[in-house]
Specification:
Layout: E1 4-9, H1 11-20, H2 23-29, E2 30-35, H3 36-42, E3 44-45, E4 55-56, H4 60-64, E5 68-71, H5 75-82, H6 95-105, E6 112-114, H7 118-126, H8 136-142, H9 156-171
Parallel strand pairs: 1-2, 1-6, 2-5
Antiparallel strand pairs: 3-4
């Protein structure tokens, strides 16, 4: 089975893969790329206990062995990307998502991004790049690891719904600055 190429994962997807015990299988079967911010600051593994703030996910082995690729986008480039949009549109966008999206839109390759956050897919729809989103459910199916996942935000239906909403926003003049 060929590897899924040029796959950017958001922190929520990395966390969910660790919770499911599927991180190693995905790294083996996919060409995984993480933003520096996601890899070093945002990856927390949250236990089911209410008072647990989570523990860091240690990606150092994968980084050192280059089984995942880390990218870093200059803050100027991230701000330039964000300046294309009305600031209210990005109210829920965190630093790792902003860096990942800024990287995605400035690459020539056919990168795809997976997230559990609505804003990521809305931005893709608003940029007319809906085809560059991929849900965790779709990743697992493509890798032969298909299963039911707790959380609608990891489903194909969620991705399609939010990219359509972003595309509607674009047509109606919301989101991007004119």
């Amino acid at each position: 089975m060929p590897k899924l190429k040029l796959l950017i994962l958001d922190a929520g997807v990395v966390i969910k893969l660790h919770e499911l015990g599927l991180w190693s299988a995905i790294v083996d079967r996919c060409d995984v790329h993480l933003s520096e911010i996601v890899a070093r600051r945002e990856c927390k593994y949250h236990e089911a206990q209410e008072d647990d703030w989570g523990r860091d996910i240690d990606l150092s082995h994968d980084i050192a062995n280059e089984t995942i690729k880390i990218f870093d986008v200059d803050q100027v480039d991230v701000e330039s990307f964000k300046s294309l949009f009305d600031p209210n549109y990005f109210a829920d966008l965190d630093a790792g998502e902003a860096e990942s999206l800024a990287f995605l839109v400035n690459q020539k390759g056919s990168y795809r991004i997976s997230s559990g956050d609505a804003i990521v897919y809305k931005v893709l729809g608003n940029l007319n790049r809906s085809d560059q989103g991929i849900s965790l459910e779709e990743i697992l199916a493509a890798c032969g690891l298909g299963r039911t996942i707790q959380g609608y935000q990891y489903s194909k239906a969620f991705r399609l719904q939010l990219t359509q909403l972003g595309a509607t926003d674009m047509v109606q003049g919301r989101g991007r600055k004119r």
